[in-house]
Amino acid sequence: MTTEDLVQQIRKKKTFLCIGLDTDLEKIPPHLLEEEDPIFEFNKAIIDATHHLCVAYKPNIAFYEAYGINGWKSLERTIEYLNKNYPEQFTIADAKRGDIGNTSARYAKAFFEDLNFDSITIAPYMGKDSVEPFLSFKNKHTILLALTSNIGAFDFQTKKIDGKELYKEVLAISKSYHGSQNLMYVVGATKAEYLTEIRKIIPESFLLVPGVGAQGGSLQEVCKYGITSDVGLLVNSSRGIIYASTAMDFANAAKEKANDLQGQMQKELESRNLL
Ligand SMILES: O=C(O)c1cc(=O)[nH]c(=O)n1[C@@H]1O[C@H](COP(=O)(O)O)[C@@H](O)[C@H]1O
């Protein structure tokens, strides 16, 4: 999917919500455990109930790898279901990969070609040759971790090197990578006040912003500091939406939560004349 297609979807649906499919057998409604593939059945129900309220889905790969071959099969069925039934959705493999060049090239093949995701999250720590193999895929997007939502972000990301915070170096240096037009960045919603500085370095790039909902980030603050004329934001919520209820009505409860966020997003877009 191109960035232009994504922007068009955001304007059409009046939402920049990304729903995180962090599907955990210990948290899904117990009645689903009787199904042959409970993870897929849960995802399918959530997707069918919420697709009109969001523009992206982000399965976090850890939640699938945790169940071995069966988990991987559930992931495969989920991305196939999305690509077949909702091809307008932007899909994010939250895999946080990145390795020496030839290994990164294999990760890229796995997620972009075999599974056919639109994008993948990547850790920038190993540098240029670990990121560029992902950037060589046309209309596929590489979402580089810049300033993450967790407390550990302060261990390294905000530390200064030659007087400049490391996350700012990640943003500035990555712009020189071959294929950098395919880059997006992760900035945690819990770090919204940093977005003013971030936008000085990457004024237009799309940001994946997790941390609204369970981690307490504010959608309004994220918009205040991070929104662009093309919106430039995908705001993710996982647990806050998908685990709204563990009863039979779980998909409907998830829809209500997504609907609430969509309404707030529409308000933010309308108040800035971005629709
Ligand atoms: O790359 C991510 O998506 C990510 C980056 C980050 O800085 N913080 C963060 O929470 N995430 C992911 O976003 C999701 C957040 O989930 P909730 O806190 O349940 O909404 C999880 O899948 C995290 O792994």
Automatic annotation (TrEMBL):
Superkingdom in the source lineage: Bacteria
Name by which UniProt lists this protein: Orotidine-5'-phosphate decarboxylase
MF (Gene Ontology): orotidine-5'-phosphate decarboxylase activity
Catalytically driven reaction(s): orotidine 5'-phosphate + H(+) = UMP + CO2
Entry-linked SMART domains: OMPdecase (SM00934)
Keyword Lyase: yes
Keywords, alphabetical: Decarboxylase, Lyase, Pyrimidine biosynthesis
EC number, as in UniProt: 4.1.1.23
Pathways involved: Pyrimidine metabolism; UMP biosynthesis via de novo pathway; UMP from orotate: step 2/2
Family the UniProt entry places it in: Belongs to the OMP decarboxylase family. Type 2 subfamily.
Keyword Lipid biosynthesis included in the entry's annotation: no
Residue span, Orotidine 5'-phosphate decarboxylase domain: 16-254
PANTHER family: OROTIDINE 5'-PHOSPHATE DECARBOXYLASE (PTHR43375:SF1)
